[in-house]
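Example: DNA-binding transcriptional activator of the SARP family.
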Amino acid sequence: MEFLLLGSLAVRREGTPLELGGPRQRAVLTMLLLHANEAVSVAQLAEAVWDSPPVSPESNLRTYVAGLRKVLGERLVTRPGHGYQLTVEPGELDLDAFDRLVRAGEDALAEHDTEAAADLFAEALGHWHGVPSAELNAGPLLRAELTRIQERRLTAVERYAKAALELGRFDDVIGRLRRESALHPLREELWALLMLALDRSGRRGEALEVYSTARRLVVEQVGVEPGARLRQLHQVILESRVPSPAALNAHRQLPMDIAEFTGREAELRRLCEPGPQTTVVISAIEGMAGVGKTKLAVRAAHRLVRRYPDVQLWADLHGFDPDELPADPAAVLESFLRLLGVPGAQIPESLEERAALYRDRLAGRRALVLLDNVAGEDQVRPLLPGGSTCMVLVTSRRALLRLDGAKSVFLDVFTPGEALALLSRIAGADRVDADRAAAERVAELCGYLPIAVALAAKRLARRPQWTVRDLVAQLERGGGLGARGVFDLSYQALPDNQRRLFRLLGIHPGEDVTADSAAALAGLTPYEAGDLLEMLLDEHLLQQHTPGRYSLHDLLRAYAVEQVTAAEPPPARATARRRVLDWYVHTSWNSARQLNPQRALEIAPADPAVHPRAFTDRDSALLWCDAERANLVAAVRDAAEHGLPEQSWNLAQCLWDFFNLRKHRADWIDAHGVALAAARSVGDRAAEGRMLITLGIALREVRRHDEAIECNRQALAIFRAVGDRARQEPVLNNLGIVYMDLGRTDDALSCYEQSAEIARELGHPHTEAVTLNNIGLLHADAGRFDLALARYLRALEIRREIEDPYSEAILLNNIGEVYRGLLDFPAAVSHVDRALETFRAIGDRYGQAESLDNLGLALDGLGDRRGAEKCWIESVALFEELGEPKADEVRARL
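Written out as structure tokens, the predicted fold is:
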């Protein structure tokens, strides 16, 4: 058997949960488990179960014990004269496992093995899955016992946090400490550890914010100032002049600096000099393509990090990219807000609201924002923070004359001295000094353009047998000055396999490339492609902002497009494009199968030369989608524009779960709109209908209800015309949801009923359960609880048959709400508790927060105010972690 005390009470026999009865019976079991293998007297049990025990509690306790014996059997025995005793075997009780691991962690600390201690404390805390007693009617003795084990848990949290901080695992503990300090606001050690974790990870501003929160809560609840430890730590952080080493963080996004950066000292001094103290500092670096604006901005940004340690954000706005439209400021703001911790579902739709929220998130924080390749003032204006604690670095090929308050730094080509310095740094000072006149001629032939000088120097460095005069001869033989001549020299000197991959990169969709996608493009293995990409990086023909991801400078991308057009016949270009798009389609399909195993989508086999990535779990699939998002959206468009409509709509369809999960609604509407047009262009009615379904869902989410209705109506007409009953089923369900949003309940119910009927007819239990759940919601909203319950219970039966724990948990929570509406609070507690256990098992924090709120309402209905309070406290903490506004609603209950 398995006894679970550290959260919601549960007992399992061979993995099957046992029915433990009502709150008082569960309180009896909790007390017996806390004193497992010991006799617990009737007096102790009475004080554990009632605040004011009945005159003769023995008969009530005998009833509860009898109920427990039905499920526990001979494990529960009577000890005449002593009370009752529950036998628990070693390894069966989670509290014992927790205590054993904590003791082992303490031993590891005593032996100075901090890493082992941290791992042991983390494993011990992993046995906890909630707040004990939330569903119990606990008396004073049991409350004291539960407080005692909660104290042991908090001590373990503090020991774990200290060990993890010593190991530099800052991000591991910050989230846990935020939650614990919210749940236990008077425990000052938790606040202190959270401040340390934030400060040591370079987030000093947030550490000071934590102190302000802690102080306010302590003063409000106790009426005194925080203790000496917190006050002293606050002072130390305030007085520190150098921020602690920064750990990786979502809002520290600067590209990598380059070791061979040369010259530009006057410009760097100007960019780094202190600005006005009353407004945001804006510095605009302007100059021609290839002059080194981005490299200068990145070098300046890294120098300025100490002045702006809290946040560093970066975005390429593609203002002058021939293959991409300039970045939409709204899309850039969405990306920044996500990095700043705003969940996708909470990001506003309008540009103005996003800009306001962005300014709010940066208010009071020392933030540096680097905006590269800006097309013009209108593109950059919404991305400017509002406070004087922030700085913005902008690069552009245009003079940004209408950008109020901006300090312009014009970047010209290198001076002869700077060009020679870069040649010396890359090719070697001895070679340059040996023939300075020839070196000056190299710089002149490169037009003093930094990108050209760097490529020429790299060519010389890779050929130790050459003199500088040999390089001059090569450049003069090419007959051109500036970048083009150097590009030709570098490209022609490459081996055939490197030259072929370089030019093929000119047709790769999106912003950057990986070894996997390059392999598909060129018909190679990822290992072969990775080697070639590294060689091209060594030749300065590629850039690398992030390890493993490569990109082309704008000038080199245009050159690659010229070369691929000249050297590869149209059939070869078409084959390469099809291969890389096949790779994106099939890898996206593999990711979609992890994100939603219930999805059914048939796609044509990939080219045999394509080896799509596989994913072992949901997290790795999501990570890939996050990294490739821009490329994936570009690939949908690229396929549509180059006569590959099937790849366009298949890729869009594969991305639906990712867009829906992350709430990338702008990308969702853009990609599926392009794919819809692609399907219509070739008259594929089935694909057109599928795109209308998913586009309709996105439009409903952004509250464009009329357009959503039209999409669903068009899809329904298509599937009725072609006789596809299976596709009519989700369209009717989605149309019902839009009608429900608009309050058109009769129309919604009609759609739901039609969808459920088709699902039953076709034997599609998953869709039938979804639709029945929606019908139940509609009836519940209207107060028709009996009708809602019937639909929910039928949906629950179906869910159990198809083993979908997530959907089953949603249903259990909904059923609990209905039982509350029927005033059957014990049944509500039972169902919501099971939902909560499932949400915890699958790691769904939003589901946990919702069910904890619901459980609190049910317990409140039973009169268990303490249990309700504990549930709501935990719910608030989870909603706050997720950035959900519902936290305020639940806090109001408290």
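The chain is about 65% helix and 5% strand.
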